[in-house]
Amino acid sequence: MGPLMLAAAIFGGLMVLRWLLKNVNWWIHERPLGDNQHTLPPGDMGLPIIGNMWSFLLAFKSGRPDSYVESFVKKYGDTGIYKALMFGYPSVIVTTPEGCKKVMMDDEKFEPGWPASTVELMGKKSFISIPYEEHKRLRRLTSASINGMDALSFYLTKIEDIAISSLDKWSKMGEMEFLTELRRFTFRIIMHIFVGSEGDAVMHNLEKEYTALNLGVRAMQINLPGFAYHKAINARKKLVAVFQSVVDQRRNEMKENVHYRKTRDMIDGLINATDENGNKLDDEQIIDTMLMYLNAGHESSGHTTMWATVYLQQHPEIFQRAKAEQEEIIRKRPPTQTGLTMKEIRQMPYLSKVIDETMRLVTFSLTVFREAKKDTYINGYLVPKGWRALAWFRTIHYDPKIYPNPMEFNPSRWDNFIPKATEFMPFGAGSRLCPGNELAKLEIIVFLHHFLLDYKLERLNPKSPTMYLPHTRPVDNCVARIHKVSNA
């Protein structure tokens, strides 16, 4: 074969390879739709198997996470809905409040569609994976133990005790990783609420296992040593074993009519919960529910509290306004009162705005995965049955039409502003609203109340880069010192 023929053969081979790489996902996922493929949203599915994950990871790890959706807008226009191949599934990314409302709230057409790795780690009987009717039943059985006013009032004293002792301890520690300590703080709270246990060694070991579990939730499902998913699977097994032993112990106590414990906790509530038909939760439901609440009450609360503290310290005028509100709470308090009450918690409108603005700006969960139960149209575009619909919260929270100057930390933007249900979704929306949202906010409020009154934060590396996966955080975990500034 002569040089020209060889070059032509190589060129031809490369062209065939290019065509295959460009069209294999179309052949697998779009061609079977027949004429319906022409009503799909604009977009592309990237490379075979990998799909759009390479560009997604590149955008988030480059420090420009919003460039991922911006690349679709630049190529295909501002349609608010785009096709892609994400986490191994043909998907439709939805970036408008109206589209997300359809995805999140139409339970006749959409059901949970989380990646298999997430379901495996969070539990097949947890809120994220069970069908709609079972989800409603589980919410009814667990809501009083988590978000009920009586439960929150009962938890308040312990949350406050832990906040006060933690801040005092940190003020004497010197240099520390503020985020790491906050995650331990929120983990200690949630474990006390779950099982009434506070042994420091046990707490530390469980927190380490849950950290490994959480790192695997967004990882590729590769169950081989050295990979995050493999570590997460092993961590889940250890956590399940610990919780199973606690459930077994409690059931034995109830069977033997043992009532020596002085405090109640969530696990008692879950074991005793009975629906209208007299049915109770089985052990797997109880344990998966507890693991899911660990995510809501530990990871999200810890990260949000850190960012709220950082933003307050970065904006002295906002700090002083929030501090004045807390000082007013103390001034109005009867002299015989020694701690916060739920009534006082409801009298902190500006601090609530600080927290809402933090949750908007950070957007702890950037998306929710749903699966189309039948062919469904959004804004005239088809979401085929079996495809995933990704409600992309991050784009909505940064929409300048809803939030002018969206990258600015501005709690006052919430003055006289009540967003529509799907314009602000830090805890999701619809039937899938995070069932632990009120508990999570209570933890953040109580901590910030005491921080504002008596402390300040000194970041030692304020220019530390920010990483965005699996959650938004400083690369150095916010290395800092806590200083006590009050004379109290």
From TrEMBL:
InterPro entries: Cyt_P450, Cyt_P450_CS, Cyt_P450_E_grp-I, Cyt_P450_sf. Its main location: membrane. This is Ent-kaurenoic acid oxidase. It is found in: Membrane. GO terms for molecular function: ent-kaurenoic acid monooxygenase activity; heme binding; iron ion binding. CDD domains: CYP90-like. It is a single-pass membrane protein. Pfam families: p450. Pathway: Hormone biosynthesis; Plant hormone biosynthesis; gibberellin biosynthesis. GO terms for biological process: brassinosteroid biosynthetic process; brassinosteroid homeostasis; gibberellin biosynthetic process; sterol metabolic process. GO terms for cellular component: endoplasmic reticulum; membrane.
